[in-house]
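quick one: pyridoxal-5'-phosphate bound model?
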Amino acid sequence: MDWDDYELMTRAVRAGQTRTEEGEHSEPIFTTSSFVFKNAAEAADRFVNNAPGNIYSRFTNPTVRMFEQRLAALEGGEMCIATASGMGAILTLCLGLLKAGDQVLASRSLFGSTVTLFSGILGRFGVRTDFVELRAIDAWEQAMTPQTRLLFVETPSNPLMELVDIAQLADLAKSKGCLLAVDNCFCTPALQQPLSLGADIVVHSATKYLDGQGRCVGGALVGAAQWLKGEVYGVMRSGGASMSPFNAWIFLKGLETLSLRMQAHCDHASQLARWLAQHPAVERVYYPGLADHPQHALAARQQRGFGGIVSFEVRGDRAQAWQVIDSTRLLSITANLGDTKTTITHPATTTHGRLSPEQRQRAGISERLIRISVGLEAIGDIQADLARGLDGIV
Ligand SMILES: *Cc1c(COP(=O)(O)O)cnc(C)c1O
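yep, here:
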Protein backbone atom coordinates (compact mmCIF):
# COMPACT_ATOMS: atom_id res chain seq x y z
CA MET A 1 0.00 0.00 0.00
CA ASP A 2 1.20 3.54 -0.72
CA TRP A 3 -0.03 5.48 2.29
CA ASP A 4 0.98 8.83 0.76
CA ASP A 5 -2.39 8.83 -0.99
CA TYR A 6 -4.30 8.67 2.30
CA GLU A 7 -4.94 11.26 4.98
CA LEU A 8 -3.36 11.07 8.41
CA MET A 9 -6.48 9.80 10.18
CA THR A 10 -6.80 6.96 7.69
CA ARG A 11 -3.15 5.98 8.04
CA ALA A 12 -3.54 5.99 11.84
CA VAL A 13 -6.25 3.34 11.62
CA ARG A 14 -5.14 1.29 8.63
CA ALA A 15 -1.43 1.54 7.86
CA GLY A 16 0.86 -1.37 8.59
CA GLN A 17 -1.73 -4.07 9.16
CA THR A 18 -1.02 -7.49 7.66
CA ARG A 19 -3.59 -10.26 8.08
CA THR A 20 -2.87 -13.92 8.71
CA GLU A 21 -4.74 -16.77 7.04
CA GLU A 22 -7.24 -16.65 9.92
CA GLY A 23 -8.69 -13.42 8.51
CA GLU A 24 -8.69 -11.57 11.86
CA HIS A 25 -10.10 -8.02 11.68
CA SER A 26 -8.06 -6.57 14.56
CA GLU A 27 -4.28 -6.86 14.72
CA PRO A 28 -3.09 -9.94 16.64
CA ILE A 29 -0.34 -10.04 19.28
CA PHE A 30 2.43 -12.43 18.30
CA THR A 31 3.79 -13.51 21.66
CA THR A 32 6.58 -15.72 20.43
CA SER A 33 10.27 -15.33 21.09
CA SER A 34 11.39 -17.22 17.99
CA PHE A 35 10.13 -18.43 14.61
CA VAL A 36 10.48 -21.81 12.88
CA PHE A 37 11.85 -22.59 9.44
CA LYS A 38 10.61 -25.07 6.84
CA ASN A 39 14.03 -26.67 6.65
CA ALA A 40 17.71 -26.16 7.40
CA ALA A 41 18.33 -24.36 4.11
CA GLU A 42 15.63 -21.75 4.85
CA ALA A 43 17.12 -21.20 8.32
CA ALA A 44 20.55 -20.69 6.80
CA ASP A 45 19.19 -18.22 4.22
CA ARG A 46 17.44 -16.15 6.84
CA PHE A 47 20.48 -15.99 9.07
CA VAL A 48 22.66 -14.55 6.32
CA ASN A 49 19.84 -12.12 5.41
CA ASN A 50 19.35 -13.61 1.96
CA ALA A 51 15.68 -14.26 2.61
CA PRO A 52 13.14 -12.01 4.31
CA GLY A 53 11.28 -13.37 7.33
CA ASN A 54 11.38 -13.54 11.08
CA ILE A 55 14.08 -15.24 13.10
CA TYR A 56 13.82 -14.02 16.65
CA SER A 57 11.67 -11.34 18.33
CA ARG A 58 14.66 -9.27 19.40
CA PHE A 59 15.25 -8.69 15.64
CA THR A 60 11.73 -8.54 14.21
CA ASN A 61 8.21 -9.47 15.31
CA PRO A 62 4.99 -9.16 13.26
CA THR A 63 3.09 -7.09 15.85
CA VAL A 64 6.06 -4.80 16.38
CA ARG A 65 6.43 -4.45 12.60
CA MET A 66 2.78 -3.37 12.29
CA PHE A 67 3.38 -0.63 14.85
CA GLU A 68 6.59 0.42 13.08
CA GLN A 69 4.92 0.65 9.69
CA ARG A 70 1.93 2.54 11.04
CA LEU A 71 4.12 5.10 12.85
CA ALA A 72 6.36 5.44 9.77
CA ALA A 73 3.26 6.16 7.67
CA LEU A 74 2.12 8.81 10.17
CA GLU A 75 5.49 10.57 10.31
CA GLY A 76 5.98 10.26 6.56
CA GLY A 77 9.21 8.28 7.09
CA GLU A 78 10.65 5.45 5.05
CA MET A 79 11.55 3.28 8.03
CA CYS A 80 10.79 2.94 11.74
CA ILE A 81 12.58 1.05 14.51
CA ALA A 82 10.52 0.41 17.64
CA THR A 83 12.42 0.32 20.93
CA ALA A 84 11.86 -0.66 24.54
CA SER A 85 11.58 2.97 25.68
CA GLY A 86 12.10 6.52 24.46
CA MET A 87 15.55 6.51 26.07
CA GLY A 88 16.27 3.19 24.36
CA ALA A 89 15.49 4.92 21.05
CA ILE A 90 17.91 7.79 21.72
CA LEU A 91 20.66 5.44 22.93
CA THR A 92 20.21 3.18 19.89
CA LEU A 93 20.38 6.18 17.57
CA CYS A 94 23.54 7.54 19.19
CA LEU A 95 25.35 4.20 19.31
CA GLY A 96 24.46 3.66 15.66
CA LEU A 97 25.44 7.09 14.31
CA LEU A 98 28.25 8.34 16.53
CA LYS A 99 31.81 7.38 17.32
CA ALA A 100 34.45 8.63 19.75
CA GLY A 101 35.56 12.13 18.79
CA ASP A 102 32.15 13.18 17.44
CA GLN A 103 30.28 16.15 18.85
CA VAL A 104 26.54 16.39 19.52
CA LEU A 105 24.75 19.72 19.77
CA ALA A 106 21.59 19.49 21.83
CA SER A 107 19.06 22.05 22.93
CA ARG A 108 19.45 23.21 26.52
CA SER A 109 15.90 22.41 27.60
CA LEU A 110 15.75 18.65 27.19
CA PHE A 111 14.09 15.77 29.00
CA GLY A 112 16.24 15.06 32.10
CA SER A 113 17.32 11.51 31.19
CA THR A 114 18.31 12.73 27.72
CA VAL A 115 20.71 15.22 29.31
CA THR A 116 22.13 12.46 31.54
CA LEU A 117 22.56 10.16 28.55
CA PHE A 118 24.34 12.78 26.44
CA SER A 119 26.58 14.44 29.00
CA GLY A 120 26.95 11.70 31.61
CA ILE A 121 27.03 8.45 29.67
CA LEU A 122 28.07 9.15 26.07
CA GLY A 123 30.77 11.48 27.40
CA ARG A 124 32.53 8.45 28.87
CA PHE A 125 32.77 6.98 25.37
CA GLY A 126 34.38 10.06 23.86
CA VAL A 127 31.27 11.66 22.40
CA ARG A 128 31.06 15.25 23.51
CA THR A 129 27.76 17.13 23.83
CA ASP A 130 27.37 20.90 23.93
CA PHE A 131 24.07 22.50 24.84
CA VAL A 132 22.62 25.39 22.85
CA GLU A 133 19.68 27.70 23.38
CA LEU A 134 16.83 26.12 21.43
CA ARG A 135 15.44 29.18 19.68
CA ALA A 136 18.67 30.84 18.56
CA ILE A 137 19.66 29.51 15.12
CA ASP A 138 22.84 31.63 15.11
CA ALA A 139 23.90 30.06 18.43
CA TRP A 140 23.62 26.62 16.79
CA GLU A 141 25.78 27.78 13.93
CA GLN A 142 28.40 29.25 16.27
CA ALA A 143 28.58 26.07 18.36
CA MET A 144 29.29 23.87 15.33
CA THR A 145 32.74 22.39 14.81
CA PRO A 146 34.13 20.06 12.13
CA GLN A 147 33.34 17.21 14.58
CA THR A 148 29.62 18.04 14.85
CA ARG A 149 27.67 15.03 13.63
CA LEU A 150 24.20 15.30 15.23
CA LEU A 151 21.84 18.11 16.26
CA PHE A 152 19.20 17.03 18.76
CA VAL A 153 16.11 19.06 19.76
CA GLU A 154 12.74 18.81 21.44
CA THR A 155 10.18 21.27 20.11
CA PRO A 156 8.10 22.47 21.87
CA SER A 157 10.37 22.15 24.88
CA ASN A 158 9.54 20.91 28.35
CA PRO A 159 8.29 22.67 30.46
CA LEU A 160 8.44 26.21 28.98
CA MET A 161 7.01 25.38 25.56
CA GLU A 162 9.72 27.07 23.50
CA LEU A 163 10.07 26.19 19.82
CA VAL A 164 12.72 26.10 17.18
CA ASP A 165 12.07 26.66 13.48
CA ILE A 166 12.69 23.08 12.32
CA ALA A 167 13.08 23.98 8.63
CA GLN A 168 15.74 26.61 9.42
CA LEU A 169 17.67 24.29 11.71
CA ALA A 170 17.43 21.49 9.13
CA ASP A 171 18.89 23.80 6.47
CA LEU A 172 21.78 24.65 8.77
CA ALA A 173 22.39 20.96 9.56
CA LYS A 174 22.43 20.09 5.84
CA SER A 175 24.77 22.92 4.95
CA LYS A 176 27.28 21.59 7.53
CA GLY A 177 26.82 17.91 6.71
CA CYS A 178 25.26 16.90 10.03
CA LEU A 179 22.01 15.19 10.91
CA LEU A 180 19.03 16.72 12.70
CA ALA A 181 17.02 14.56 15.11
CA VAL A 182 13.75 15.89 16.55
CA ASP A 183 12.13 14.38 19.65
CA ASN A 184 8.47 14.69 18.58
CA CYS A 185 7.03 13.51 21.87
CA PHE A 186 5.03 16.67 22.70
CA CYS A 187 3.37 17.12 19.30
CA THR A 188 3.20 13.60 17.86
CA PRO A 189 2.71 13.25 14.07
CA ALA A 190 -0.90 14.35 14.56
CA LEU A 191 0.35 17.92 15.13
CA GLN A 192 3.83 18.07 13.58
CA GLN A 193 5.81 16.06 11.03
CA PRO A 194 9.46 17.08 11.42
CA LEU A 195 10.64 14.93 8.47
CA SER A 196 8.48 16.97 6.08
CA LEU A 197 10.22 20.10 7.42
CA GLY A 198 13.68 18.67 6.66
CA ALA A 199 14.63 16.82 9.86
CA ASP A 200 16.49 13.55 9.27
CA ILE A 201 15.26 11.48 12.20
CA VAL A 202 12.23 11.62 14.48
CA VAL A 203 12.57 10.24 18.01
CA HIS A 204 9.56 9.16 20.07
CA SER A 205 8.77 8.20 23.60
CA ALA A 206 5.70 6.10 22.78
CA THR A 207 5.08 6.08 26.54
CA LYS A 208 3.43 9.49 26.23
CA TYR A 209 0.76 10.43 23.70
CA LEU A 210 1.22 7.47 21.33
CA ASP A 211 -0.08 5.20 24.07
CA GLY A 212 -2.07 8.08 25.50
CA GLN A 213 -3.42 6.14 28.45
CA GLY A 214 -0.30 5.66 30.56
CA ARG A 215 -0.03 1.88 30.21
CA CYS A 216 3.30 0.98 28.60
CA VAL A 217 6.85 2.21 28.18
CA GLY A 218 8.18 2.26 24.61
CA GLY A 219 9.92 4.33 21.96
CA ALA A 220 10.72 4.61 18.28
CA LEU A 221 12.98 6.10 15.63
CA VAL A 222 11.63 7.15 12.23
CA GLY A 223 13.53 8.34 9.17
CA ALA A 224 15.18 7.39 5.93
CA ALA A 225 16.56 3.85 5.61
CA GLN A 226 19.84 5.55 4.68
CA TRP A 227 20.28 6.48 8.37
CA LEU A 228 18.40 3.74 10.18
CA LYS A 229 18.79 0.53 8.22
CA GLY A 230 22.49 -0.18 8.75
CA GLU A 231 24.29 0.62 12.00
CA VAL A 232 21.26 1.88 13.91
CA TYR A 233 19.17 -1.22 13.24
CA GLY A 234 22.29 -3.28 14.00
CA VAL A 235 22.56 -1.67 17.44
CA MET A 236 18.88 -2.41 18.11
CA ARG A 237 19.32 -6.01 17.02
CA SER A 238 22.55 -6.68 18.93
CA GLY A 239 22.11 -4.14 21.72
CA GLY A 240 18.67 -5.52 22.51
CA ALA A 241 16.51 -2.46 23.24
CA SER A 242 13.62 -4.11 21.39
CA MET A 243 9.94 -3.41 21.96
CA SER A 244 7.78 -6.22 23.32
CA PRO A 245 4.92 -7.43 21.07
CA PHE A 246 2.35 -6.71 23.77
CA ASN A 247 3.52 -3.12 24.14
CA ALA A 248 3.61 -2.74 20.35
CA TRP A 249 -0.03 -3.82 20.23
CA ILE A 250 -1.02 -1.24 22.87
CA PHE A 251 0.75 1.51 20.90
CA LEU A 252 -0.72 0.29 17.61
CA LYS A 253 -4.21 0.66 19.05
CA GLY A 254 -3.20 3.99 20.64
CA LEU A 255 -2.26 5.35 17.20
CA GLU A 256 -5.80 4.65 15.93
CA THR A 257 -7.23 7.35 18.20
CA LEU A 258 -4.18 9.65 18.21
CA SER A 259 -5.60 12.44 16.03
CA LEU A 260 -8.87 12.61 17.93
CA ARG A 261 -7.12 12.57 21.28
CA MET A 262 -4.61 15.23 20.27
CA GLN A 263 -7.41 17.52 19.03
CA ALA A 264 -9.14 17.12 22.39
CA HIS A 265 -5.89 17.64 24.35
CA CYS A 266 -5.21 20.84 22.34
CA ASP A 267 -8.75 22.07 22.84
CA HIS A 268 -8.66 21.49 26.61
CA ALA A 269 -5.17 22.94 26.97
CA SER A 270 -6.06 26.14 25.14
CA GLN A 271 -9.19 26.60 27.26
CA LEU A 272 -7.15 26.02 30.41
CA ALA A 273 -4.38 28.38 29.27
CA ARG A 274 -6.87 31.19 28.64
CA TRP A 275 -8.56 30.57 31.99
CA LEU A 276 -5.23 30.58 33.86
CA ALA A 277 -4.10 33.76 32.06
CA GLN A 278 -7.00 35.72 33.55
CA HIS A 279 -6.69 34.28 37.08
CA PRO A 280 -5.34 36.87 39.57
CA ALA A 281 -3.08 34.30 41.29
CA VAL A 282 -1.31 33.46 38.03
CA GLU A 283 1.66 35.54 37.02
CA ARG A 284 2.48 34.06 33.63
CA VAL A 285 1.24 31.27 31.35
CA TYR A 286 3.46 29.39 28.89
CA TYR A 287 1.36 28.04 26.02
CA PRO A 288 2.16 28.55 22.32
CA GLY A 289 -1.55 28.88 21.54
CA LEU A 290 -1.79 32.17 23.44
CA ALA A 291 -1.34 35.22 21.20
CA ASP A 292 1.24 36.70 23.61
CA HIS A 293 3.53 33.63 23.42
CA PRO A 294 6.72 34.96 21.76
CA GLN A 295 6.65 32.16 19.16
CA HIS A 296 2.91 31.99 18.59
CA ALA A 297 3.27 32.68 14.86
CA LEU A 298 5.91 29.97 14.41
CA ALA A 299 3.77 27.47 16.33
CA ALA A 300 0.76 28.30 14.16
CA ARG A 301 2.84 27.73 11.02
CA GLN A 302 4.85 24.69 12.11
CA GLN A 303 2.22 22.75 14.08
CA ARG A 304 -1.34 21.70 13.35
CA GLY A 305 -2.27 22.42 16.98
CA PHE A 306 -0.64 23.95 20.04
CA GLY A 307 -0.37 20.78 22.12
CA GLY A 308 -1.68 19.53 25.43
CA ILE A 309 0.92 20.89 27.86
CA VAL A 310 0.44 24.17 29.75
CA SER A 311 2.92 25.61 32.23
CA PHE A 312 2.33 28.61 34.48
CA GLU A 313 3.87 30.61 37.30
CA VAL A 314 1.82 31.38 40.37
CA ARG A 315 2.24 34.60 42.32
CA GLY A 316 4.62 33.70 45.12
CA ASP A 317 7.25 31.01 45.44
CA ARG A 318 7.60 27.27 46.03
CA ALA A 319 5.10 27.32 48.95
CA GLN A 320 2.33 28.76 46.76
CA ALA A 321 3.10 26.40 43.87
CA TRP A 322 3.02 23.39 46.21
CA GLN A 323 -0.21 24.69 47.73
CA VAL A 324 -1.89 24.69 44.32
CA ILE A 325 -0.59 21.17 43.64
CA ASP A 326 -1.55 19.81 47.07
CA SER A 327 -5.04 21.34 46.91
CA THR A 328 -6.01 19.23 43.90
CA ARG A 329 -8.22 16.20 44.43
CA LEU A 330 -8.79 15.09 40.86
CA LEU A 331 -5.49 15.78 39.08
CA SER A 332 -2.67 13.24 39.42
CA ILE A 333 0.51 14.50 41.07
CA THR A 334 3.01 12.76 38.81
CA ALA A 335 5.80 13.68 36.45
CA ASN A 336 4.37 11.68 33.55
CA LEU A 337 2.53 13.36 30.67
CA GLY A 338 0.48 12.64 27.59
CA ASP A 339 -2.27 10.73 29.39
CA THR A 340 -6.07 10.95 29.28
CA LYS A 341 -5.71 11.77 32.99
CA THR A 342 -4.56 15.33 33.75
CA THR A 343 -1.22 15.39 35.55
CA ILE A 344 0.35 18.20 37.59
CA THR A 345 4.07 18.58 38.20
CA HIS A 346 6.47 20.92 40.03
CA PRO A 347 9.42 20.82 37.58
CA ALA A 348 11.96 22.56 39.86
CA THR A 349 11.83 19.75 42.44
CA THR A 350 11.05 16.76 40.21
CA THR A 351 11.85 16.56 36.49
CA HIS A 352 14.47 19.33 36.74
CA GLY A 353 15.43 18.74 40.38
CA ARG A 354 18.87 17.41 39.54
CA LEU A 355 19.93 20.63 37.83
CA SER A 356 21.89 23.11 39.92
CA PRO A 357 19.99 26.27 40.94
CA GLU A 358 22.05 28.23 38.37
CA GLN A 359 21.24 25.74 35.60
CA ARG A 360 17.55 25.95 36.52
CA GLN A 361 17.65 29.71 36.53
CA ARG A 362 19.33 29.74 33.13
CA ALA A 363 16.64 27.38 31.84
CA GLY A 364 13.94 29.68 33.24
CA ILE A 365 12.52 27.06 35.59
CA SER A 366 11.50 28.88 38.75
CA GLU A 367 10.20 27.53 42.07
CA ARG A 368 6.75 28.99 41.28
CA LEU A 369 6.41 27.11 37.98
CA ILE A 370 3.78 24.37 37.57
CA ARG A 371 3.37 22.12 34.53
CA ILE A 372 0.05 20.57 33.57
CA SER A 373 -0.45 17.84 31.00
CA VAL A 374 -4.08 18.51 30.24
CA GLY A 375 -6.13 15.35 29.97
CA LEU A 376 -9.56 14.50 28.68
CA GLU A 377 -11.65 15.08 31.82
CA ALA A 378 -14.29 17.84 31.53
CA ILE A 379 -12.44 21.15 31.41
CA GLY A 380 -14.72 22.69 34.07
CA ASP A 381 -13.73 19.97 36.52
CA ILE A 382 -10.02 20.51 35.82
CA GLN A 383 -10.41 24.26 36.37
CA ALA A 384 -12.38 23.78 39.60
CA ASP A 385 -9.65 21.46 40.92
CA LEU A 386 -6.99 24.13 40.26
CA ALA A 387 -9.17 27.00 41.50
CA ARG A 388 -9.20 25.47 44.98
CA GLY A 389 -5.50 26.19 45.44
CA LEU A 390 -5.26 29.29 43.25
CA ASP A 391 -8.17 31.09 44.93
CA GLY A 392 -6.39 30.63 48.27
CA ILE A 393 -3.36 32.61 47.07
CA VAL A 394 -5.06 35.92 46.23
C1 LIG B 1 9.50 10.69 28.46
C2 LIG B 1 10.34 11.34 27.46
C3 LIG B 1 11.46 10.71 26.92
C4 LIG B 1 11.93 9.34 27.39
O1 LIG B 1 10.99 8.36 27.11
P1 LIG B 1 10.86 6.99 27.97
O2 LIG B 1 9.81 6.26 27.22
O3 LIG B 1 10.47 7.40 29.36
O4 LIG B 1 12.18 6.33 27.96
C5 LIG B 1 12.19 11.35 25.94
N1 LIG B 1 11.84 12.58 25.52
C6 LIG B 1 10.77 13.25 26.02
C7 LIG B 1 10.43 14.59 25.51
C8 LIG B 1 9.99 12.65 27.01
O5 LIG B 1 8.95 13.32 27.52
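The mean pLDDT is 96.
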